[in-house]
C-alpha cells in the first residue's frame, strides 16, 4: 500500500542506489515541489546535493531572505544568488508578456548555468517535476518548459546535458504535500500558494521597473498578510496582487492625487486549469483596500477581480 512514509523510505533507498557518491545540482524556487524534491535528495545524499536559489528580484516581499533561511534551517547545502539587477536589466523596455517570460527564462538559465559550473564534477540535475508535468504540458509555462523553449538558442547550456533525477515524477500535488509532511517540512512551505516562475514580472502589466516591483511587493504583502490573519489563506488556491498601468485621480487630505491602481486576485481551483474567483468577505476587502491606499505610496485605488477562468486566466499576463 502506498503511504507517504513508505514512499519516503523506498525513494531514499532508490536514490542512494542510483546516485552513489555522485553530485546533484538542483534549483530551488521556494515552492512545494522543488522543496520536497530537495529534502528527499538531501536525505539520500546529504552534502552531495547542491541547491541553488536565485533571487530574480521578482519574488514577494522578503521572500528571498525568509525562504533561504528556512532552507538553511533544514540543513540543505544551499547557495543563494542575488541576480536582481541582471533580471531588471533584461526586462528594461519590454512590455510584451511573452518577451518578458523569455527574457526571464534566458537570464535564469545563464545564472543557473554559472552557479552549476561552480560545483566540481556534478553529474546530475535534480528537478521537482511531478506527474501532471510529465503526462501533459500543464507546465507549458513552467520553468522546465521555459528551459526547453531555449534549447535551440545558442546551443544547450551545460547543466542541461546532465543526467536528470526527478524523485516526484509519479506523484500528484496532494501526494507531494503529504510526502513533504512525512519529511517534516515546514507547513508554511507546504501550504504556499502556487507562484509563477516569472514572478511579479507578469503581475506588473507592461514594463517592469524596480520601483513598480517595490510598490507591488508592499501592496501584495498587505493583501497576503490579511488573508492569513483572517484565516482564509488556506482556503484560497492562489492569490496575488496585480499592478495596473493606469493612473486615476484621487484625493488625499486636501491634495489631488494621480496614481496607479492595483487589482486583487483570489481564486479557487483544483489544478489551475479552471478557476472561480473567491467570494471574499466585503469587510476583509474593505480593510485590505484601506490599508493599501493608506500605506503604499503610489497606489490610490484598489479593485477586486471577479473574473473566472475560462475565459479569464488566473494571471493577467
Ligand atoms: P493562468 O494565468 O494561465 O495560470 O490561468 C495558471 C497557473 O499557472 C501559473 N502560471 C505560470 N507558472 N510560469 C509559471 O511557472 C509562468 O509563466 C506562468 N504563467 C502562469 C499561474 O500562476 C497559475 O497558477
Automatic annotation (TrEMBL):
The keyword Nucleotide-binding applies. It comes from the Bacteria. It catalyses: XMP + L-glutamine + ATP + H2O = GMP + L-glutamate + AMP + diphosphate + 2 H(+). Residues 2-192 form the GMPS ATP-PPase domain. Signal peptide: none annotated. Pathway: Purine metabolism; GMP biosynthesis; GMP from XMP (L-Gln route): step 1/1. ATP binds at residues 29-35. Catalyzes the synthesis of GMP from XMP. This is GMP synthase [glutamine-hydrolyzing]. It comes from Mucilaginibacter defluvii. The lineage of its organism: Bacteria, Pseudomonadati, Bacteroidota, Sphingobacteriia, Sphingobacteriales. The gene is guaA. The chain holds residues 193 to 509 of 509 of the full protein.
Amino acid at each position: 500500500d502506498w503511504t507517504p512514509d513508505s514512499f519516503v523510505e523506498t525513494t531514499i533507498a532508490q536514490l542512494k542506489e542510483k546516485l552513489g557518491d555522485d553530485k546533484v545540482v538542483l534549483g530551488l524556487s521556494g515552492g512545494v515541489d522543488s522543496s520536497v524534491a530537495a529534502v528527499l535528495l538531501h536525505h539520500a545524499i546529504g552534502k552531495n546535493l547542491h541547491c541553488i536559489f536565485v533571487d530574480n528580484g521578482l519574488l514577494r516581499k522578503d521572500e528571498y531572505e525568509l525562504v533561504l533561511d528556512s532552507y538553511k534551517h533544514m540543513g540543505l547545502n544551499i547557495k543563494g544568488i542575488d541576480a536582481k539587477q541582471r533580471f531588471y536589466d533584461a526586462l528594461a523596455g519590454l512590455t510584451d508578456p511573452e518577451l518578458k517570460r523569455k527574457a526571464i527564462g534566458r537570464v535564469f538559465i545563464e545564472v543557473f548555468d554559472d552557479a552549476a559550473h561552480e560545483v566540481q564534477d556534478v553529474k546530475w540535475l535534480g528537478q521537482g517535476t511531478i506527474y501532471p508535468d510529465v503526462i501533459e504540458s500543464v507546465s507549458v509555462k513552467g520553468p522546465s518548459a521555459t528551459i526547453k523553449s531555449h534549447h535551440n538558442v545558442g546551443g544547450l547550456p551545460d547543466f542541461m546535458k546532465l543526467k536528470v533525477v526527478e524523485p516526484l515524477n509519479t506523484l500528484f500535488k496532494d501526494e507531494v504535500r503529504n510526502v513533504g509532511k512525512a519529511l517534516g517540512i515546514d507547513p508554511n512551505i507546504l501550504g504556499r500558494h502556487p507562484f509563477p516562475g516569472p514572478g511579479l514580472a507578469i503581475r506588473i502589466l507592461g514594463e517592469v521597473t524596480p520601483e513598480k516591483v517595490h510598490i507591488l511587493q508592499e501592496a501584495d504583502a498587505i493583501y497576503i498578510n490579511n488573508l492569513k490573519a483572517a484565516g482564509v489563506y488556506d482556503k484560497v488556491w492562489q492569490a496575488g496582487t496585480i499592478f495596473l498601468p493606469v493612473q486615476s485621480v484621487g484625493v488625499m487630505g486636501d491634495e489631488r492625487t494621480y496614481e496607479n491602481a492595483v487589482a486583487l486576485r483570489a481564486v479557487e481551483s483544483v489544478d489551475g486549469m479552471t478557476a472561480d474567483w473567491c467570494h471574499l468577505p466585503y469587510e476583509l476587502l474593505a480593510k485590505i483596500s484601506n490599508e493599501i491606499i493608506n500605506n503604499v505610496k503610489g497606489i490610490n485605488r484598489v479593485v477586486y477581480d471577479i473574473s473566472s477562468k475560462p475565459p479569464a486566466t488566473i494571471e493577467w499576463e
